[in-house]
Amino acid sequence: MRKIIEDTSSDELLTASESNMAAFYSAYGRANGNTLAVGKNVTWFYTGIQDSLFNGVISARFQPDEAREVFNKLQAKIDEQGAPALWWIGPLSKPAEFGPLLEGYGLQLDGEVPGMAVDLISLDKQPETIMNFIVQKVDSAELQELWARTAAVGTGLSDAATEEMVRLEATLADPKYKAQHRYIGSLNGTPVATSALILDSGVAGIYAVATMKEARGKGIGRFLTVMPLLEARQLGYRVGILQSSSMGYPIYKKIGFKEVSKYKIYLQSKKEQ
Q1: Disulfide: which of 65, 142, 229, 268 matches 240 by Cβ 3.0-4.6 Å?
Q2: In 73-230, at which residue ranges do the beta strands (DSSP E only) sit?
């Protein structure tokens, strides 16, 4: 493990945040039959799941000709399997004019995602109790499948992508993924929400915060964000990070997260015949 990032003002925070995100998504690329490319200047992966969230470029700091090479390799995968991919272009991405470069390849800007961070010392000792709501840490193949299905439905994935995610998540039960912790929350005995904690690069990353539509507005997303971060704090971590959806942004602000970066998301898809 790299040294712990002590606070959100650290000069190393952005690098640590990007590395943490790469650690989360890279696990999917390592699964059998999938692709993961990790080099000095780039990290990209491809699973073939028919949702762009499961394919793409996470870290990119290279020359324009290197960008073209990665684009071509990723396009070959997309044209073969049909699943689109995302390029996450953040404050550390190079070259500086990355957006116009990708647009020149035919990619489209798909939106912007704020990167956020929180000092874990500032968190409350315990999240507010929710009646008839319990949280389990995933520690079996059965719970891993249940987690994947709940996360997929809560995120709004298609039925096909949900089944693909369930199969992919089953490969992450291997002990080598010990830096990845998954949590599933049940309301009145029914699984309704998920989150994941990634302890990597000196920060605690929160991912896959998803809640079923019928269980939203009860503080469940907040609970499944704060609880893993408190666990990370007990293990010695001092900074929590995440990339926020528009739905989650006001919740994270109330928790104490502050925006520290912005990612521009570009979509690469199958070429029209």
Answers
A1: 229
A2: 85-89, 108-119, 133-137, 180-187, 190-200, 203-211
